[in-house]
Amino acid sequence: MSDVNDTEVQETPVVVKTTLSITVDGRAHEAEPGQLLIDACEDAGSYVPRFCYHPRMEPVGMCRQCLVEVEGPRGPMMVVSCMTPVAEGQVARTETPSVKRAQEGVLELLLANHPLDCPVCDKGGECPLQDQAFSHGPGESRFVEEKRHYEKPIPISDLVFLDRERCILCDRCTRFADEVAGDPLISFTQRGNNTQVNTFPDEPFASYFSGNTVQICPVGALTAKPYRFKARPWDLEQRESTCTTCSVGCRTVIQSSRDELLRYQGSDSDAVNWGWLCDKGRFNFENVNSEDRLEQPLMHDGSNLVPVAWSQASAAVAEALKTGTAAILGGARGTNEDAFAWARLADALGIEMRDPQLSDGLPAEVFGLPSASIEEAANATTIIVIAPDLKEELPVLYLRLRDAAEKRRSRILEFTAVSTGLTKYSWKSVPTEPGLQASVVRNTLGEAAVREQLSKGNVVVVVGRASLAESADHTVAALSAVLAEVPGAKVLPVVRRGNVRGAIAAGLGSNSNATEILTAAAAGKLDTLVLLGADPIADFPDTDLARRAISAVRNVISLDTFLTESTARASVVLPASAYGEKEGTTTNLEGRVTSVAQKVTARGTSRADWMVAVDIASRLNVDLGFDSVESIQRAMIATSVFAPMADGGANTREGVLIDQPATALPAVSATAGTHSSYDLRLVVSRRMYDQGASTTHSPSLVGLAQRNVLRVNSADLARIGVASGTSVRATSSKASVSVTVEADDSVGRGVAHLTFNAPGINAGDLIDVNASVNDIKVETL
Amino acid sequence: MSDHTTADYSLGGQVPTGPKILTSRWESADGHTYDGYVRTGGYTALRKALTTMSPAQVHDEVKASEMQGRGGAGFPAGTKWGFLPADVHPRYLVINGDESEPGTYKDRLLMEKDPHQLIEGIIIACYAFGAAQAFLYVRGEMALAQERLAQALNDAYANNLVGKRICGTDFSVDITLTWGAGAYIVGEETALIESLEGERGMPRLKPPFFPASKGLYMQPTIVNNVETLSNLPYIVNQGGTSFKDLGGATSSGMRIFAVSGHVNKPGVFEVPNGITTFRMLFEAPEYCGGVRANRKVKAFIPGGASAMWFFDEHLDLPLDKPTVDQAGSMLGSGAIVVMDETTDMVKACWRVVRFFARESCGKCTPCREGTTWLERILHRILTGNGRREDLDLLFEVSESISPGLAWPPRQTTICPLGPSAVSPIASAVNRFRNEFEHYIEHGRAIAGVEYVPMHAGSSHGAHAHV
């Protein structure tokens, strides 16, 4: 409505109707154009039973449960409401005798071969078939024949079991695998009454997203190993929360029984995850329940770490922080409140050196660029991707961008040295080599076809650190090159850890990055190093520097959930409470602040990071001005960055977006020469399952991490004269390791790929973090 | 209009005759070869169409012929072609050679005995509606048909009758020969399209898309039956009106019927469409030559296993689509199965239902679960374990597949396969309830019926009588 001044000519306002008028069971209803009748009926108060229909997937009209009558030119016509779009003047009936007869008939048929093993079925109590048999079913079965029998259940992957007797062949899991995940590894086999879902011979359903099929299965046919036989749905209590495994920030429902986390389900957030979760985020709650969790503070007695009381440990930490030079690494695994409390403590104690990242991410300035939301990225005309393999590192963002490409909303222009999950969905995937990205980007953006594509609409750059074996400067330079060419482009920075953005917004970033901090430590210039859930020896790209730094610092203070190689050398180890055990908020890669919920009691005597900060502050007579999550949040809202939280928006499913102060990218002189013809340029990136604590301490996931191999293009391998599958010596400026080499043409020419933090050889041994790029020589043993 | 329209429908009346337009080369030893085809006037229609007629003129002749599609639904071919959206290319012709209904074997013989006639028809159709690519989908089991079509295609390509710049004109079309893996359901046009695309052969839902607007690879697609296309050379050469005059007022042209079951000479017969009666077909010496051992007809299926059954009171109906529709069944794909008075109706019913249960694709619930349930109830009755309530249950389950058990059937299913399994039950149980009750009471058939397998004298043993 425009503001029309009274003195101006008044015209009859033209009301443009944007809805469609339909009638459902005699009631008038306004439906959205493009809506399906099944949804419109539900909005109008008439729930239509359904099994195959899922609002996030293409309808198939297979189960036939959602039959309703629609008035047609030749009288009422039975239609499947999940395949029928609403139309102006449509008259639908969902409760006539013939509709009820049809719905009861389909339900009776669905139940004909369904084993009535509800009492021992995990789905019993939350089963759409059970529920709808009660609400819309015929009441009793007249099927006296013997039911279908199959071996039950069969494992179709390391995580998922399939009971084909319970399956009602709704095509949800198979559609999800094909349509949403792009992993069509399960399919219908046989036909007619023998139709069954199965994998292909010797090909398990090894999808990173397999857990979603369990969640959307409308019966108990698909069950997941971590939850099987653990609880009955009516014994579960649940709260909505946010997954902090990576920085996508998927909304979840965390469920527990008897104070033990038992299951995570995806919650459907339009802005973020559409209800999907990756298997790591879904199943790594097991690590919270792990026997190996730290339960009480430990202090070094000169030879061993021994349990001590919190008072003793806190006092030792306070003492260490009182004098000398200190630095803080980490904080990106906790909540905003944790990071905020530690940042204020650091301010009060004058601790200048802080970094929530471990030189494995991006400079904080990228968060100050014009920021794109996931929704904007997934609807952009062009998505430029200069990032690690999103399928491995930010899996649900991968799903969203894949969907954008598959539904032809967006074209993806990818720059990468090694093929990624998105490569096959890319309009153009441009091979690069570490060190040369900026020039490759400049050349590509100069091509006529690319220019034309970029001019067609808005552009979002998804930018992240594709390789840990190269300076972040190369990524920054490539991003600068894009922004110079496409000034209106928005940026979606992808970082791996859950709350990097929140930690930086809360003040845990500084002018010193992790490399500088660890270099200072190694040089003996640091007295105290606080590790907030950080394990530099495992996660810092240059393992040698991390080891030297940790050894050289007098006081290493670690807050963590598990003992790690880094914490094992600490003078004080404080047990931290984990995800699911603490309350607060988190900030995802878009700057979206959402709630994190406590569902179970913190393990042992473990505390949230913020509590430790408050405790230490009080021991040092510092008043931080808060002593609870609520009071920290009040203090946060008083800062300009977190001010948008004031209206409580962080407690909604979609959360609230914050913006960091605008910054310019740092000027970098990122050049790297071409490597000598004897060398291969090293690319080191992460995979979903690695030796990180959340995988290694989750029994269901630990076996999924694959051993490290050196992947090299087959042409390079032939040139070097090495056969695929043999052991070779890989030598960098830092170290020389023996490793199995594998021919892999998804790796570009001149490049060698290793996985970071994978079982087997440690890629970090080969990396010099101060080098612009790292080259390796590959020789036969 | 032919003078046959006033013919007496009793056997005593004159059995109408007409030219062999589809089966003219079946008796000839080399009718299936290129030389044999060309020697008998083959490919003259194609040259005539390409060099003297516009595509619209060809289409007009087909419309004038009023030819009903011979695949089963009987929809006028010329009208179907008119559903293609203008100026959307590429568009495809898909030829449905997946004839698989029990008792249906006319298309197989057309492909085996006169493959060039089909190819000529395909090119003419493509010319008429502007397709540059045709896909000829042949049922998996038809080895001889596949072999002969492949040879015929090679010869046609070699003689510039298929491929680039056909007969030196600007018109080009390619025909891709492909075959299925033996599933009845891919005879349904959208399942056939799925199969062609390399997917599991399962029907698509119509709506939202119909093949004519979005079919193969989501492009406009016409799916035509083998017999339908085989008529085109005649229509082009002789004109649509001349074709129309061969048949009755509401059924134009000649038509092939495949008769199997308890007749003396089962086989495939080309008869004037719409004016020959069932009795004539069964009794006339030039056709089936009477029911075996002079027995009475107990029941017959007039148009494929999915049709409602007919009985002796229907014998004098003409083989005319509107007439048969009106009488509560269909001519379908022209497969007629005759059962004499010694037939065990319970077993016959079970055999037909079992076919549909086994051929259900499994996509939608009512067909997947319902057809099997029906088959198992019938099998239980046959094996002496029937219960009194089973007959009602048969109808109840049928009702869940085909509400109201109406004709033409309504359906809760995606495609007509599910309701097809209901037809034999609705027919046999209603008419011969006593036989079902006898099984339930006594665990065996009534006196005087013996079990005769349905395929006896059917496609495998049959010869073409033309």
Essential attributes:
heterodimer, A: 781 residues, alpha/beta, Ubiquitin-like (UB roll), Rossmann fold, 5 domains, seven-stranded mixed sheet, six-stranded mixed beta barrel, B: 466 residues, de novo design (two linked rop proteins), 3 domains, 9 strands, 38% helix, disordered N terminus, disordered C terminus
Please give a structural write-up.
The complex is a heterodimer of chains A (781) and B (466). Chain A is α/β, with parallel strands linked by helices. Helix content of chain A is 25%, strand content 21%. Chain A has 23 helices and 34 strands. In chain A, the strands form 8 sheets. A 7-stranded mixed beta sheet of chain A has the order 15-14-25-24-23-16-17, sandwiched between helices. A 6-stranded mixed beta barrel of chain A has the order 29-33-30-32-31-34. In chain A, helix 2 crosses helix 3, helix 4 runs antiparallel to helix 5 (210-216) and helix 12 runs parallel beside helix 14 (472-485). The radius of gyration of chain A is 28 Å and the shape is globular. Chain B has 466 residues and is α/β, with parallel strands linked by helices. Chain B has 3 domains: 20-243, NADH-ubiquinone oxidoreductase 51kDa subunit (Rossmann fold), CATH 3.40.50.11540; 248-337, Ubiquitin-like (UB roll) (Roll), CATH 3.10.20.600; 345-442, de novo design (two linked rop proteins) (Up-down Bundle), CATH 1.20.1440. In chain B, the strands form 2 sheets. In chain B, strands 7-8-5-6-9 form a 5-stranded mixed beta sheet, with no helix packed on it. Chain B has a 4-stranded parallel beta sheet with strand order 3-2-1-4, sandwiched between helices. At the A-B interface, helix 2 of A face helix 14, helix 15 and helix 16 of B.
